[in-house]
Design brief:
The protein is of the alpha+beta class. The protein contains 12 helices and 18 strands. Strand 4 and strand 5 form a beta hairpin. The N and C termini lie far apart (about 70 Å). The relative contact order is 0.13.
């Protein structure tokens, strides 16, 4: 019996966003969990300068860098991705100046697993590249990815779909500069404390909890370093929950988990997540009545559908301590896959271990690709009736 051909999976990591280092940690987890009997991994790192490199010793390199949150340095063969001549695949081809002799050893890619957090990886840009190349890829499409990153647009759609979100205002940097008192006026309407955050960013980067009006300008200035639009959100003091969603047309939600912020951290920020090992903890399953857990799962699926998502998403919730008020905080379309990340931990607690989760995500990518490929992209006009004499 002929040996079954392995699926070539291109794993993309790194990228140009402020979440570059977290992407490296996630990529190490994903590639370490992939079954070598089923998959041939083609690891491609994207440097902060936007250049793409075939990283043949990716696992060793990532294992050395990730504990220190170090950025990806240039290594391996610099490549560009081009459509395969036979279609429905990508080929990592040596870029100008790279070793031409390496070309024969660079395989085509059957499906791409983007482990790219933040801008240029999670916002629909790289997904557009995959669409143009006609290759299968894991996760949400162009529209869903863009909505997952743009918190303002995301919250508007969720609100219109009847999914509860906290009260907030979006503010543009240009408007804030033209009308300096605008931010303070909006914050007063919400009532302090408020949260200020960049509109399109993740990993809690650029987020500030503002207790007093005097601190608002500094928080907005910080957020505007990362985005031209910022959100000012009402505070929901209480508890934070997360739920993982998996699927395409019929998504399913995991059991909910709770995030517990510890130490001197006031909220679940970048430092409490990734820098301070004692900054946070998780409780899976979350301590809540079954009816409330069911409500969270239903809200997570509703959000997934409202935003036209595919493959995977992590849905984050804010709730009052008595759980009478529950809001969706945001939806993340490429959730973290680090050792402490909730998405894989929630599914493991729900009966889907990480290797099976990776396998299912790749299956969903291929399924979605087949669905898209079945749609017509040309139109043949109906013949018009012949004119009468």
């Amino acid at each position: 019996m002929a040996e079954k051909k392995k699926l070539r999976v291109g794993v993309l990591f790194g990228g140009r966003s402020s979440e570059h280092e977290i992407s490296l940690r996630s990529a190490l987890t994903v590639m370490s969990a992939m079954d070598p009997a089923r998959y041939e991994i083609v690891p491609i790192g994207i440097g902060r300068d936007g250049r793409w490199y075939l990283e043949r010793n990716a696992l060793k390199m990532l294992a050395e860098k990730t504990p220190h949150l170090a950025a990806l340095s240039a290594g391996g063969t610099q490549v560009t991705l081009l459509p395969h001549p036979e279609g429905q695949a990508l080929v990592a081809t040596p870029a100008d100046g790279a070793s031409a002799g390496a070309q024969d050893s660079i395989p085509g890619v059957d499906v791409v697993f983007p482990v790219l957090h933040g801008t240029y990886g999670e916002d629909g840009t790289v997904q557009g590249l995959f669409e143009l190349a006609g290759v299968a890829y894991v996760g949400a499409g162009v529209l869903g990815s863009a909505l997952g990153m743009d918190k303002d647009a995301q919250k508007r759609l969720l609100r219109d779909a009847g999914v509860a979100v906290v009260k907030y205002f979006a503010i543009d940097r240009a408007d804030c500069m033209e009308t300096p008192e605008l931010g303070a006026r909006l914050a007063r309407k919400l009532g302090y404390p408020v949260f200020v955050k960049p509109n399109a960013l993740g990993s809690s980067i650029g987020i500030s909890r503002v207790k007093h009006a005097a601190d608002l300008k500094a928080a907005l200035d910080d957020a505007f370093q990362y985005d031209r639009k910022a959100l000012i959100e009402a505070s929901c003091e209480g508890r934070e929950f997360e739920c993982a969603v998996l699927g395409n047309d019929r998504p399913e939600a995991s059991i909910p988990g709770e995030v517990l912020v510890k130490g001197a951290h006031e909220f679940y920020d970048y430092e409490s997540k990734y820098v301070d090992p004692e900054g946070s903890a998780t409780k899976i399953p979350a301590d809540m009545p079954p009816a409330k857990a069911k409500k969270l799962r239903a809200m997570a699926v509703a959000a997934f559908k409202a935003l036209s998502l595919r493959g995977m998403a992590r849905v984050d919730f804010l709730a009052s301590r008595d759980l009478r008020e529950i809001y969706i905080n945001e939806v993340n379309t490429i959730p973290g896959f680090t050792a402490i990340s909730m998405y894989p931990k929630l599914w493991e607690a729900s009966g889907v271990p990480l290797p099976k989760l990776i396998e299912r995500l790749i299956e969903l990518a291929l399924e979605e690709h087949r669905e898209r490929a079945s749609l017509k992209i040309t139109y043949q006009p109906k013949s018009l009736p012949k004119p009468r004499d």
